[in-house]
Structure formats: structure tokens, C-alpha cells
Specification:
The chain is α+β, with helices and mostly antiparallel strands and 666 residues long. The protein has four domains: 155 residues, no CATH class; 141 residues, Mannose-Binding Protein A, subunit A (Mannose-Binding Protein A, Chain A, Roll), CATH 3.10.100.10; 132 residues, Mannose-Binding Protein A, subunit A (Mannose-Binding Protein A, Chain A, Roll), CATH 3.10.100; 157 residues, no CATH class. β26 and β27 form a beta hairpin. The longest helix is centred in the middle third of the chain and has 13 residues.
Length: 666
Amino acid sequence: MKIAIVLASATTAQQSTGDTVTQFYRQDGGLGPCWTDCGAGPCDDFCGEGGYCCGGVNNWKGIENINNRDCPQAAIDAIVSTVFRCAIPSDKPKPDQKYVEGDQGYCWDTCKGGGCDSFCGKGGYCCGGVNNWKGLDNINNGDCPQNAIDAVTANEYRCAVPVADECVKVQGAEALEDEEYKIIPAAKANTFNWQKARQQCKKYGNHWDLVIFNSDRELARIQGMLEDNCVNDHSYWIGYREVNGRVTTQYNQPVKATAGYAATTSIDLPWAEGEPNDNLGNEKCVRYNAVDGTVNDAICGRTWTGAAKDGVGMGIICEKHNPCEQKRGDETVEWENKKYFISKAQFINANDAKIACQARGKHWDLAVIEDKQEHTMLNNKIGGCVPYWLGMTNPSGTELKDHQGVDVAFAQWDTHLGHGHNPNEPNDVLGDETCVRMRGGMYNDALCDDSNGFNKNEMQGYICKYQFVDDGEADCLDCNHNVDVAPWKTLRGCQEPTTCEEGARLEIVDAWKIGNGKNRPTRYGFAGKIKIPEDAGDFSILIRFSKKVTHGHFQLWNMNFWNFYNGGYEVLIHSKYWNTDRHDPDSVLFVAEELNSDEYPELVYWTGHQKKHSCFQPSMHQGAKTLGTDYDRAVQEAPHVYADTVTSVRFKNGRIVKVRGRGRHN
């Protein structure tokens, strides 16, 4: 019996290093004759990337008109067919490579004899086994290695597929079970269906369930553990479901964040090609194929991997989740009482969260949690499962400090976050992580300027707390406390204002909130004392809210409204023309109600009365005050009210809608 075994190689120089690279080729008969589609030479479209269409010299010797064009000699040598066939790049098989007969069925019509990746799988051959074909001189096994021929026992041409090398466990491989993860490989043919897999995970204690991949590095670590421990030859149940293309976690949370709301729920799953597909019927559960690191949908009642006849069971990957895992993806809620305020999620860093808390008034700041009771109460009020900024700092080690640098004894550091990739929290893994945030009641240290969370696209909340601290400082709000108000720019031809520190300052005397956002819109208000320099004489103050304020009601006594600019959220007031103060002549009371934003304004102070509208809103005309603005028209329409006696102004959607005031002062 004559058997041809051909595996050809080409040696080329590697320009960058001078080293040589040997490329092997072998015939893929399953692709069929290639001359019609390719001619001869390179033919990526038909033969695959790096493939050639060649006429092999072993069968064409003596035929001088063969035209192989630029086929490498190694590719030509690989062709054993008597027609032009594809030579594909290949790894050199080991001389002792073992093969088994595949279950693809009869292969001659598709492959003829020899290499046939496209039908038999990578590294597979279509062979007529010597055990059944002895004495038949016309057998053509092409380039089938002897080991592949010996593997075929059927009385027809069958695929011989390579057997993977026996896995050797990596020395020092991570244990499959620890306090945060438990991986249970399949130990028998029939193991767990998806529901029983969940029940098994839950037996380990609170917050245990099937794994959810919250980050790419978590998945990479688990795949590495499976490979290092030689248990990556089958599939594992994981904590996901898929119904009609909608993929959720086992808690029915969408894998992808909903529009307008960003939260770390899960990575995008690495679906195998063509998955999910309900190929076998009602495939609502998801399993992880550790062989190639992909996932597919599967019937939830299955207890085996691959074909049932193969006798390979299903493994389980269990995880001890964050306590709020079941709420990932839920909308966050705003909650407050007289002592605490919990914000909704937004893209905000710790520095801006601190400013937002302090803007609520004197003695407000990011919350310092003192004990377990306070911790439990606040954690129970939080909605969703996003990080929340707190007021403690972590200057070094595991210590926590309050705003005054005093030690905080209670600390609930997260033992799961980063498990297996990073040191335990706190860890300064990204640098000087001195700020602290909480997810599900668990703390981690973080960069203070991080505004987008763990996956760089995650909203965060913050918790404020009212706590009186006698710091000996002034009662007024800090200059530039409202980050949403742009710095003041003096226009050409206009008077420069006095510096914030030397001009008017605002003290919040009281503040409130009404409405629940459902059957009544949420509205905010405050009473503020405007402190002015002593013996100021005539002066002007511009009260500057951010553009978020489009609705409100302002009241003012013992001062004059002059005008409203830029949609009503910037208010210019003038010093009074008379002096009737009975207490503190260097202060003015300003009340704002029905605001649609919970902020406090910035103040800009000038000596003298500023009357040029264009200095405050360039689109307005130059010169002294004239009729034509919303404010002027509202004054005209109010009976017995004059511009210099207005005490109350209401605006809505950026327009003055009503004014009130006294009659002319005599």
C-alpha cells in the first residue's frame, strides 16, 4: 500500500531581527478545487487568510506547462492532489501527535484524502484507515500522518481529529475555592441544572449565588484559574438568563445600562459565533464554555456539556456578591430628612460632592459614618447599587479620619472588590486614593477626582450630613461655592466689581424643600442674609444662580430690584434710597422660593449703582434703564407698584410673570 505524507515548510528572513521564520503549509481538500476561483497563487478569499492555490509537484512531475505563479515552494510541496488545491498555513504537527476518529461522518466526497480543516476541524485529516484497507493498492490518503491513518477504524473514509495534550496543573495555581469564589468542576456525567446550580451556590451563605462578571478582569482571572487547574475542558453555569435576545442577570437586571443611566451591572458577554440562538428549543439560561472562553444560551434543565453520550457534566461558578448586587441597574432615589441628604446618581467626584453638601447650609458636609447603627440606617435608604461618596478620608493604611482629622473607629472595607487582582481595600491601587465611597455598605478608597466610577462610565451618588462643628470661621458661604456658575467676566466699558472676599457675602439663615416629585414638583427655597461692607454708600449686587434655575419666586425688603438678566436667573439689586433699619444696617434679607434647583447663588458686588443693561446681558441695548424688558412690563401691569418699590418677583421658564410691591415711598 502506498501512502503519501507531505507537510511542507518555507523559511524566510524576519527583517526586524534577522531571525528566520519557518512557515508550514498543508492541503485542505475540503475547500475543493481552487483553479476556477483563484487561478494560481495567493487566494485569501477562497483558501483563507495566507492561503495559496497551487498544483503540487508530487503529482505534476513531468508536466512542464504547470503555472504556480508565486506559490511558495512549501505550499506547492504540500499539495498531493492531482488538481489545483488550497495550501493553508499550518503549525507543524508533533511526530507523536495522537488522533481519534471523529464523528463528522463520511469525508471522502468533501475532502478526498488528506488534510481537511474545513470539514474535520483544525488539524483534522480525512483518511482511510490501514486496519480496514490493507491490500487495497488504490487507496489515497494524501498527506494523512500515519498516526491519523491508524486512528480510523471505520470501513470508509472518516475524519481523524487531533487529541489535545494532557493538561498539567500549574504549580502554585490559585485554589478553586476561597472566601469569595467557589468553582465546582463537573465530576460526573450528570451534575446540576441551572436552578440546582443556584441552590448549591446559596448554600455557602448570605449573598452567594452564581457568578456575574462585573468586570473584564474578573472574567480573565476566573478563566486563568480554570486553565491553571486543568478544568477548562467543559462548560459551567453562570448567573445570566436570555429570553428572546434580552440578556439579564439572574436578578433580572439588564446587562446593558438603560438609556440615561449608567451603572456597573455586567460586562458585555463574550457570545460564541451565532449565539444566542435557541438552537435546541427554549434555551433561557447561559453557560460559560471554558474551552474557548465564550458563552451560549442553553436549556436550563441540561445537566451535561456537549452531547449527552460524551458523559461530560456541567460545572458551577459561585460568587459571594456585593450585598446590593440584586439592585444593580435599579434607579437611585433621593432621600432626606433634617440631618441627612442622599442624592441620586450622577457623574460627580468627591470634591464636587463635598461642595454640593456644603451648599446646603452651615454645618452640612459629606457624611461621616460613626457607628454600625448609623451605617445600617443610611445603607437601607440607598437605592440601586452605585458607589456613594462619604466624608471620611483614608490618609494611609486602613485608618479613617473625619473632617477634623479625628480617627473614625467604624470601618466596613470591601473584601470582594478587586479580589484576586489587587491588594485588599484600602489599597491606593490607582495612586493617592484618599477619598472614601460606599457600595452596598462596603467601603473602598478612591481618587477624589474620579467622577465616573469603576467602569469609567458609572454614575455615583453622595451622602450629606448636618453636624454642628464650631470651627470659628465666618457663617457666609465660600466664594465660588457654586460650581455651576461661571466666573464673572467684566465686559469692555463696564466697571470692575469688588473682589468676593471684600464685597457682599451670603449667609443661609434657613432652607427648605417642598413637593415629592410625583403629584407635586420638587421645589426648593431659602432665606439668606446678604452681608455688605460697612458704610458702603450706594452699591449694586448681582445675585447669580446657575442656568439650572428656570423657575422661582424672589422677595426682597429694604433694597430695590433693578432688573433680571439671562432668563431670570441673574438678579441685579440696588442699595436703598432711605435708611429705616432697626437692626444691622449692613445686611439685607433675600428670600428665594419655588426654585427648581437646590443651589445657592454667587454674589457680585459693585460700589455705586450699575445701570447699563449691556454690562449684564450683551444682547440688551446700551444706556440707562428704559422700558421693554420683561421686568419693566410686569411692573407696568402691576397696579400701584413702582420699579423702586417692588418687593416680590416671580418668574417661570425664564420669563418674569408677576411682581408685587408697595406704593410710591414718600
